[in-house]
Amino acid sequence: MNKVAALTPEALLEALLFVAQEPVEKATFCSLLELTEAEGEVVLAQLEKRLTSGGLRLQRLDSRVQLVSAPAAAPYVEDFLGLEVTLRLSQAAMEALAIIAYLQPTTRPRVEAVRGVSSGSVIRTLLSAGLVAEAGRADTVGRPILYRTTFEFLQQFGLENVDDLPSLEPGKAEKVK
Predict the structure, then answer these.
(1) Is-above-0.70 flag for pTM?
(2) Structure confidence by residue, pLDDT tens digits, 68-107
(3) Confidence of residue 110 (pLDDT cuts 50, 70, 90)
(4) Helices (H) and strands (E) in the chain, counts
(5) Which of 95, 154, 156, 177 reaches 20 to 30 Å from 73, CA-CA?
(6) Is 81 within the bounds of a domain?
(7) Does residue 102 sit in the same domain as residue 171?
(8) Is 64 within a domain?
């Protein structure tokens, strides 16, 4: 197919992300737009910078990216679409989610070690809510499952990426890790 585009790679990427129904791998759009990985990262950074002043944001998780509405627009989008926030997490689920978010990828035994209690059921709740996902297996005895946060987690908490999580209080990070 002969592709003739009068648009910049940034504009083409924006169009692709706009119509994508799920997060897009960076390698996928780089290949499609005939960009090297470094060029793709430059285009992503340009798009991300341009979007910061509008109603859309570029959300990143590992090598995947997605176009989402700005967190400040959430109440309006919810009203417009007739959505109702129904996600209610228990204190235990919030604790486990915070541990996974800050230590990701991490294992259930590690979450339990930090919390001091069994966490299997709360992790199952987080999995079913789509806030965490399996991310492989640890290279330790028993090869426990690793868990990490998802795009749904970022969206629910109004984050563009996991680097936007608030920093831990000084001295707390050493105790958690």
Answers:
(1) no
(2) 988 888 888 888 888 766 678 899 999 999 999 999 999 9
(3) very high
(4) 9, 6
(5) 95
(6) no
(7) yes
(8) yes
